[in-house]
Design goal:
It is built from ten helices and 16 strands. It is of the alpha/beta class. Strand 15 and strand 16 (355-362) form a beta hairpin. Helix 2 packs parallel to helix 3 (142-151) and helix 8 (307-318) runs antiparallel to helix 9. The longest helix has 12 residues, at 67-78.
């Protein structure tokens, strides 16, 4: 529960916030003591990013990835306030997935809270599939998921899945029963199929508003259904490319700030100069506006966003008070996977510019 924002914010959770750990009811929200919206120094809980494909030249989807490179990416993310993250592995064959997953989970990086498996159980349709290669998409099955979870040594925390794909509902039920969060995304589902996924235990929406067809029915569609579903916590990529400012404002108002979390969907291009980069076996291009896309295609392919910038963007786009937006980057995503934030951020808030500048991180 929060109140208004002040020059210094003290996010107070139960004991254990600095070290993370399983969430308890008393730890589900941050208590903020505050009085105004002035610029100035603040202290807040460490950020938690539920979706990171790579960062600062490091691609988590490269089977040749070394553990030192994982640590390097985590260090660069920490400079932006991220003290915990889920490494995201996109649609790919089991052998590539297993090689990437083993390196990540054995890296010993304290900030790595687990894996987000974004695919391969997604829609094969153009648009809904996004930048995922069609040949890497495969049908969901309990057997295939079990092999991937074994390769990841039980560290898969979230799976993005399209509920309309045959076998998806049974897998959602199985995953939820085994403590894995099912997230609806990269989908062309009918509204009723969204409701069925929720009934089976889905609790998250992956980068809502993206990973979908350009043209949808005006009213009965999966976007409205997920916005209206109180059972779902929705992730939003607030970089100014994935969603226009007015769309961010309207969607977060509809979803409510308490059911919204900020994610980056960052790729190896994050924190890097414009140029070509790899996302697994997909070549992507970062242009001088910060947009990451597959060359020659309209599809976005992850982002070059960092969570500190996402916080500032969200305050500017929505007009929400900073304390609510900070919760969307820290306590709320952590709670969505049953954890609490790790460490604290010392930062400077420039209210006029809407800029959140990390000055130091304590873990």
């Amino acid at each position: 529960m929060t109140t208004s924002f002040s020059r210094r914010i003290f996010l107070q959770t139960a004991a254990g916030i600095a070290g993370g750990g399983a969430a308890r009811p008393s730890q589900s929200a941050a208590s903020v003591q505050a009085t105004s919206t002035a610029s100035g120094p603040i202290t807040c809980a460490g950020f938690f990013d539920l979706q990171v494909n790579g960062f600062a030249g490091v691609d988590f989807n490269n089977p040749a990835l070394g553990t030192a490179r994982v640590a390097e990416a985590a260090e660069k993310m920490q400079a932006t306030g991220v003290t915990q993250f889920l490494a995201t592995l996109i649609s790919q064959p089991l052998d590539r997935f297993a090689a990437c997953a083993r390196t990540l989970v054995r890296s010993g990086v304290p900030a790595l809270a687990g894996l987000h498996m974004e695919g391969p159980y997604i829609s094969p349709e153009d648009g809904a599939r996004g930048a995922h290669r069609r040949e890497d998409v495969s049908a969901p099955s309990i057997e295939d998921f079990t092999r991937r979870q074994d390769a990841a040594e039980g560290r898969i925390k979230v799976v993005t899945i399209a509920p309309e794909v045959p076998g998806a509902l049974a897998l959602i039920e199985h995953m939820v029963a085994h403590g894995v969060r099912a997230s609806i995304g990269h989908t062309a589902a009918a509204p009723q199929e969204i409701r069925e996924a929720i009934a089976r235990g889905a609790t998250l929406s992956t980068h809502l508003g993206n990973g979908c067809a350009q043209m949808l029915p005006r009213h009965p569609n999966f976007l409205w259904e997920q916005l209206a579903a109180d059972e779902l916590v929705a992730g939003f990529i607030v970089d100014g490319h994935h969603l226009p400012p007015a769309t961010v404002k309207a969607m977060i108002r509809a979803k409510t700030p308490a059911r919204s979390v900020l994610v980056t969907d960052a790729t190896t291009a994050a924190g890097q100069p414009p140029g070509d980069y790899m996302l697994g076996e997909v070549r992507v291009h970062l242009d001088d506006t910060g947009r990451v896309a597959v060359p020659g295609q309209p599809n976005l392919a992850g982002s070059a966003l960092a969570l500190d910038r996402a916080v500032g963007n969200t305050v500017r786009f929505t007009g929400l008070p900073l304390d609510q937006v900070l919760a969307m980057a820290s306590t709320q995503p952590a709670a969505a996977v049953g954890l609490v934030p790790r460490g604290q951020i010392d930062a400077e808030w420039d209210a006029a510019a809407g800029r959140f500048a990390v000055k130091g991180v304590r873990v």
